[in-house]
Amino acid sequence: DIQMTQSPSSLSASVGDRVTITCQASQDITNYLNWYQQKPGKPPKLLIYDASNLETGVPSRFSGSGSGTDFTFTISSLQPEDIATYYCQQYEDLPTFGHGTKVDVK
Amino acid sequence: QLQLVQSGAEVKKPGASVKVSCKASGYTFKNYGMTWVRQAPGQGLEWMGWISGYSGSTRYAQKFQGRLTLTTDTSTGTAYMELRSLRSDDTAVYYCARDYSVGWPNWFDPWGQGSLVIVSS
Lengths: 106, 121
Known about the structure:
Chain A has about 110 residues and is mainly β. Chain A has no helices and eleven strands. Chain A has strands at about 5, 10-15, 20-25, 35-40, 45-50, 55, 60-65, 70-75, 85-90, 95, 100-105.
């Protein structure tokens, strides 16, 4: 299995802050990397696919970058509605998820 | 309207089986796959398996090989997840999610509302 190491596991930021989450794969996954947002009690929602492609309808403050083994997810200006847990997921091999990053507001 | 509607909560005894359904609407079922993911209480997401809506071919996570069966009924646009020999650590919310690809699991959107399965004696 390809292991996905996501960091940090949690973070606290102020509204308007830039937030960055990283995801490292245990082997080269080219750009086969997706990002999801999950709010409490709700199913996950796809935000970014293939490392940097914004899903239709997702606000442009969300972005992704990276290739190979190292990936970054960014919220350019944190909003109160962005409070959630974020997960990366690879599909170069059978899919695996990172352990998640819980984002809250200071 | 694109949506996936899952069956309701279940309570099962250890050693039993559970079968969860996922009814799709708003898109052509055969043009996509269906992935199943579970989430234990307070834990992260765990990918379980995938089935092609086109061919019915399947891929399972190694952890669930021999215990998990995914099927579809293309006439009704419904996917099914059956997990056997249940243990207490199978207690989780089980999600279906439409998969972009009919050939290999890719990305998942949208997701069903989730089905809680509790395994308890």
